[in-house]
Amino acid sequence: QLGVNIPMIRPDVKSDNRKLKWKFLRMKHRLKSRSDQSIKRIPHMTDPRKLASMQILNLLFLTTWMNRPCMFGFVVLKMVKLTLDDGLSAMASVAFAGFGSLLCYMLQIKEGVRYGKLCLDLLEQFQSRAYMSRCYAFVYGMIFAYTRPWEEILEPLLTGQRVGLQSGDTQFANFDGYLHALFLLDGGKVHIDVVMERLQELTSMEDFHNNFKELGLHCLVEGMRKLHDPNSDLLDHSGILDDKLEARIALPGGGHEETTDPNSDLLDHSGILDDKLEYSIANNKIYCLRLISCVKAFLALIGGDPKRALMEADQLAPWTERKDGIIYDRFGFTVEATACFRLARTTKGSERKNYIRRGKSRVALIKKLAASNPYQCLAISSALDAEILALKKRHSLAYDKYQHAIALADRIGCIYEVGTTNEMLGRHYIDDLKNRTLGKDHLGAAARAYTQYGAHAYATVIHKLIEKLDRESS
Hints:
Blueprint (H helix, E strand, L loop, with lengths): L13 H19 L3 H5 L7 H20 L1 H18 L5 H14 L3 H18 L5 H12 L7 H17 L2 H18 L4 H12 L6 H19 L14 H8 L24 H8 L3 H17 L3 H9 L2 H4 L9 H15 L4 H24 L1 H18 L3 H18 L2 H17 L4 H18 L2 H18 L1
Helix pairs in contact: 1-4, 3-4, 4-5, 5-6, 5-7, 6-7, 7-8, 7-9, 8-9, 9-10, 10-11, 11-14, 14-15, 14-17, 15-17, 17-18, 17-19, 18-19, 19-20, 19-21, 20-21, 21-22, 22-23
């Protein structure tokens, strides 16, 4: 009725994906000839039908991003096209925030940042608080995250949450809060208690959007509880999934039927991965699945089972395989690479080569991300480079790299990475150089960092390793 059509996209049909890519390239080429100033001088949109179309597309913005990413691209492109063809409105800020995020997702960071800044300029030009919450979520959480230290992102996300609650945009206010909690955690600079309090505050909100409450956040809270408890069993993942989460993912449309075993492994391909789960994957309940997989892989790694960590990381490979990574994959890539290099030290022949090859591929992806955001990626990238050198028995160069990584982590104030880099150097001394004295010194430094961070379960694992080394020495 409004004269705006969005095609129904089937994510498994190549022709539909090509159609989206073709439309995106056309729009990118069209915008290339327009300066930011010329866009800001476009006459205002006055046609009530076009304004109504923009409002409807604006309402679809987060819903399609969370549940139909293949449709999200068409929503964004249609909003940008309406802006260029029919006039400027306050909602154009949302359109360019979405377009910039799509560019960053494809690692076209410089262009993405341009449209993020344009979005903020349009917000100021229209003096519109109504769209500030959604613009801040995408600009700071999806665009500037690729180039800026995350402490510069946290405050704007809180501002977006506050303004969203004041203006009634509760869906995006919750999304701002969700992103703030994730960046707070992944930044590794504050005590886990602070992050857990923030996450529990979000999950306790009655109007918290189901896509966030039931699709991943509870699992993250449970994983952090395990990490915080010094006596927890890091290899027992039964609490990571509850029956509601399992039912929502396994049933078409997010149903709530009870499952027979609330502790079953959601990602076991031989059981639950049937046509219903495939439906959910095709409809892109991927964000939850990726978060679950990452949490379980991390707990398996620090619990001392790197092979299981890789198995957990592999669960989504058929649906999420990419030739490059996005900034949110940094932590998962680190877990995979670390697990690969530990297994390479205990295996031989082709198996060892395969682990090293896989680990190197993940390091290469982290380096791509470090090129645009060294603040968040450079320390761990250097530490993993050191691991590669150690496996090649180039121990002098490896030592320099390890020390450089520790210094970088300390300089940026990332407590967690201070622990990780010290642990890697400690294990290098013990496993590769057979120097237990220096190895225990660095393991002790790692345990102190993990304790300071609040990861008491991780510190307990390191203390037990030191005690084991002491017993063997005596």
